[in-house]
Design brief:
The protein is of the alpha/beta class. The protein is 42% helix and 15% strand. It has 14 helices and 14 strands. The strands form 4 sheets. Strands 12-11-10-13-14 form a 5-stranded parallel β-sheet. The radius of gyration is 21 Å and the shape is globular.
């Protein structure tokens, strides 16, 4: 892989040990993916924040990086394990180490967004801009809907890109790889955000290509459904992009009908009911929280309900009176965290939960060992409000 003189200096350690480590990571990835060079990026979104997932080894790595590392591009940060301003009843060790992780990222210049939907709270760069997103749902949505360019990065590769401002020129960064090789032919009526999530999960599990085509995705599809589709694709496989426009050439086709939808739902739906309702995987944006308030129309939840959203979204919704309204309806808001992988929802506290998120359903089952009743938003509001 060709490196510029400046990149060689970074690799050799002239700009510090953290930068050298970052270049070593990128070179290794570049060689593994047959990248001919590194290309500049304008924005990095870093994961590897939740102590529940990175543990002591991840924390030690961040301690080393933060000794002399500084990000070279705008860098946002994925959710952590809990709300910084509303500390839960977790072990003092967990809380202490979670804050140390957050401090290490802030020390190197990362913006503490603690959000998996950075595209809803930060300015979107111009079309065609190269970025580096480690959050899988954000990466798929960026490529497919926001018209910016990223691979499905890992926590390490996105951090390395943040520290160098570079990323290997491979996979979806190359124009010809951004055309679908396979098309999912949707034969179902996509009625709600859950239907889109199920289609996404099937797509990601079935199509092990960088990009796929999907029929029947309207240009007027709302953001919640698009986020659900992208999250489903990002959760179940390596596919990093979908295109909904009619392909210019004939593609291999895979049918997705009622049978495939029901089989996908059966795989993810592991309970008929739950003790807790959760929304927010990916986190909810302002429009989605507003939609819940409108549909609630003054009713109250009959079971505890948690909504996960970015702090900036919470503050905006509070200004409009939406937060107070939903809190009166029984909602607990949690910022800085996400339904997935948070220690706030575990087998010790809950046997099962109710959610409309395919991504949450997958991770609750595989990582938290909590069963899930998978229902659409309107089904949840119909069945669990009074």
């Amino acid at each position: 892989m060709h490196l510029t003189r400046d990149e060689e200096k970074g690799l050799s350690g002239e700009y510090g040990e953290a930068t050298s480590t970052a270049y070593r990571i990128l070179v290794a990835i570049g060689e593994a993916t047959d990248a001919e060079k590194l290309v500049p990026i304008k924005w990095a979104h870093v994961s590897g924040v939740n102590y529940n997932t990175i543990g002591d080894s991840g924390l030690e790595f961040l301690r080393e990086i933060s000794k002399d590392g500084k990000v070279r591009v705008n860098t946002s940060l994925n959710p952590m394990g809990f709300d910084r301003e509303n500390l839960p009843e977790l072990s003092p060790e967990f809380i202490e180490k979670q804050f140390e992780i957050a401090s290490a990222y802030e020390k190197i210049g990362v913006t503490p967004t603690f959000s998996c939907i950075p595209y809803e709270i930060l300015p979107i760069p111009q079309e065609g801009t190269q970025v580096s997103f480690a959050e899988s749902s954000a990466a798929v949505l960026a490529n497919s809907h926001l018209n910016i360019i990223t691979n499905k990065e890992s926590a390490l590769s996105a951090l390395a890109s943040a520290l160098t401002g570079k990323s290997p020129y491979s996979d979806l960064r190359i124009d010809e790889n951004r055309s679908p090789m396979v098309e999912i032919v949707n034969e179902t009526d996509l009625e709600n955000e859950l239907d889109y999530g199920l289609l996404g999960y099937f797509t990601g599990k079935t199509i092990q290509k960088s990009c796929t085509g999907i029929c029947s995705i309207s240009e007027n599809t709302d953001m919640w459904s698009l986020k659900s589709l992208a999250a489903g694709i990002g959760t179940s496989g390596s596919c990093g992009m979908f295109q909904s426009k009619k392909p210019s050439r004939s593609l291999e086709k895979v049918n997705y009908g009622k049978k495939e939808m029901n089989e996908t739902r059966d795989e993810l739906n592991t309970s008929e009911d739950g003790q807790l309702i959760t929304f927010g995987s990916p986190q909810l944006g302002f429009e989605e929280i507003s939609k819940i308030q409108t549909l609630m129309d003054g009713k109250k939840f009959s079971k505890p309900c948690k909504i996960f959203c970015p702090k900036s979204v919470f503050c905006k919704a509070k200004q409009y009176g939406i937060i107070d309204s939903l809190q009166k309806s029984g909602v607990e808001f949690i910022s800085d965290a996400c339904t997935c992988l948070t220690p706030l929802i575990n087998k010790k506290n809950y046997d099962s939960i109710i959610t409309n998120s395919v991504k949450a359903s997958y991770y609750m089952k595989t990582s938290n060992k909590v069963s899930v009743a998978l229902k659409s938003l309107k089904s949840i509001l119909k069945g669990y409000t009074v």
